[in-house]
Specification:
- The protein is an alpha/beta fold and 463 residues long.
- It is built from 16 helices and 14 strands.
- Helix 4 packs antiparallel against helix 12 (336-349), helix 5 crosses helix 12 and helix 15 packs across helix 16.
- The two termini are 31 Å apart.
- It binds pyridoxal-5'-phosphate.
- Pyridoxal-5'-phosphate binds at residues 88, 142-144, 147, 170-172, 239, 244, 272, 274-275, 299.
């Protein structure tokens, strides 16, 4: 997501060198994407910024994509890339997967929308129950809708207003969570009680004040926050592993303590597994880290490239929905086409075996990137979970947003992105994202990633 340029760290690499290489790579980028430049001009006449979502923007213009197949995508200039962006972590099934295609075509021929329940929704809910060990499920159309529903549910069930949210986490674009996503250094406030900073304009201050940010990975501050707002916290929403400021895993015991504190204070624990859910293990972060939340928010990879989301909940919260105390509604919820894609994804493609393959391919890629880092003495390290991984351009590990802000070298990260884009590797724009592998990624694709990274590393280190 290229919106805020918020990583301000400076590594030992000379700024002059980074700037001159960036200029060189930017010129190369412009040269091989002239048709994207033309599309950008046309697009800006009809879409603000020339993109359907502001997260698709990057300098000098977005690369407009023509098509994808398996692990590959082709842009409108005919440029071929191995896709490590994978639609912001959606396409774990690989592009144009025939299993998903067959399910979609079959459903199409039998009608795609009734706004009445179909068997597909039952089968998908059963699969999610088995994966995530929560008994009740409802459907949404995006991650934003899932986290919005989860917050309505926590507030409705507890009759309280305040929501604890992690500083530097992006949990979707509804009012309650568009707070302290990427605040600037001078906006942060004290670490023990960070300022609630709206992410852009359009959110009433009265609503912003109902969200209480906390730093990730600090159980003591979390405890003090619950105590400071005694009896007023409806719930805590948290990505179990942060995935929108590179990847930050939870410290040992942190999620367990969050669970305990929510229980002690009568608050609901909401896992935002929009990114982690179908990518880091068969049962997502919930299974991987062994902590059971009250609510799980899913979207992205669960529906194999179609716009679907889901929200899992305890039996008690299911009753809150079933009784219509909290209204969980939507014309397209459980849309049969999306359910057909989700059923094929969850039962036929992203099987338990698929996660083993994703993890071992990812581990190989991480190890080879780490080897390049070590050999070239780069101020960086690798981090990964399941299908997801990244190189973090910081010389020491980061544990929370404030580390990201001050320790990650934003300019070096942007340069690495440009190198990848110029060497046939399609990557998420911006400093804060990570790669996502699909089941179509094989050794040859990993080799190409490492070759591009090697080209970057040797030029930056002068090797
Ligand atoms: C952790 C997390 N939660 C929620 C969302 C919102 O999902 P969507 O873009 O489908 O609304 C995102 C999107 O990137 C996300 O990364």
């Amino acid at each position: 997501m290229p919106l805020p340029e918020t990583a301000h760290g400076e590594s030992a690499i000379e700024r002059k060198l980074i700037h001159s290489l960036t200029e060189e790579q930017m010129a190369r980028f412009r040269e091989h994407t002239p048709t994207s430049a033309e599309y950008f001009d046309r697009a800006r006449q009809v879409m603000p910024g020339g993109v359907p979502s502001s997260f698709q923007l990057n300098d000098p213009w977005p690369v407009y994509i023509d098509r994808g197949k398996g692990a590959m995508v082709w842009d409108v200039d005919g440029g071929e890339y191995v896709d490590f962006h994978n639609g912001f972590g959606v396409m774990c099934v690989g592009h144009a997967n025939p299993v998903i295609g067959e399910a979609i075509m079959a459903r199409h021929d039998e009608g795609t929308h009734f706004a009445a329940p179909t068997n597909g929704s039952i089968v998908v809910a059963q699969n999610l129950r088995d994966r995530f060990a929560l008994p009740q499920w409802r459907f949404t159309n995006s991650g934003t809708e899932s986290t919005m529903a989860a917050i309505h549910l926590a507030r409705g069930a507890t009759e309280r207003d305040l929501i604890i949210k992690v500083e530097g986490s992006y949990d979707g674009h509804h009012d309650a969570v568009m707070v302290s996503c990427y605040p600037e250094l001078d906006e942060l406030g004290p670490r023990e009680s960070p300022n609630a900073v709206p992410f852009g304009h359009g959110y009433p201050q009265a609503v912003v004040e109902l969200t209480v940010p906390v730093p990730f990975n600090d159980a003591e501050i979390l405890e003090a926050t619950f105590e400071r707002h005694q009896g007023r916290i409806a719930g805590m929403i948290i990505e179990p592993a942060m995935m929108n400021i590179n990847i930050i895993p939870p410290r040992d015991g942190y999620l367990e303590r969050a669970r305990e504190l929510c229980d002690e204070h009568g608050a609901k624990l909401i896992f935002d597994e929009v990114k982690t859910g179908a990518t880091i293990a068969y049962g997502g972060a919930t299974q991987r880290f062994g902590v059971q939340p009250d609510t799980i928010c899913l979207a992205k990879a669960i529906a194999g490239g179609y716009p679907g989301g889901a929200i899992g909940m305890t039996a008690e919260l299911g009753e809150v929905v079933a009784s219509d105390k909290v209204h969980q509604i939507g014309t397209f919820n459980g849309n049969p086409l999306v359910m057909a894609a989700a059923e094929a994804t969850l039962t036929k493609v992203l099987t338990a075996d698929a996660y083993e393959k994703l993890e071992s391919t990812n581990n190989a890629l991480l190890a080879r990137c780490q080897e390049v880092i070590d050999r070239n003495g780069l101020p960086a390290y690798t981090q990964g979970l399941g299908a997801k991984g990244c190189v973090i351009f910081a010389s020491e590990p980061i544990y929370e947003y404030r580390d990201y802000l001050t320790k990650v070298d934003g300019e070096l990260s942007t340069l690495a992105w440009l190198y990848h884009m110029n060497h046939g590797i399609f990557m998420t724009p911006g400093v804060e994202e990570e790669w996502t592998l699909s089941i179509a990624h094989e050794q040859e694709h990993i080799d190409r990633y490492v070759a591009a990274f090697e080209a970057f590393a040797s030029e930056v280190s002068g090797a």
